[in-house]
Amino acid sequence: MMKAYLMILLAVILWKGYYVWKRGMRVYRQDRHDHNSLYEYLLGNGATHSEAIRPFVNHALVRAFKPLLGQWRLFLILVVLGLLVVWLG
After folding, report:
1. Buried/exposed code over 26-63 (b: 16+ C-beta within 10 A; e: otherwise)
2. Is 17 or 86 the better-scoring residue by pLDDT?
């Protein structure tokens, strides 16, 4: 029972992680395409490459994780199921 729960938990984490990564990369690429002048402006004013991409990365992270934070019911179900497996196992 414990192995089945861990496999389900790992599958859900990988599934959600894949979609977060995919959404974040899509937002990052779109922002870099739409606002390339901001990147060039930051580089032209002495910013390093990592400093120039920071606004794009921060925006992509926020947009990628925001839908995941709204899925609290799924996480609650997983926690309750985990507690039942530990208690009964």
Report:
1. ebbeebeeeeeeebeebeeeeeeeeebbeebeebbeeb
2. 17
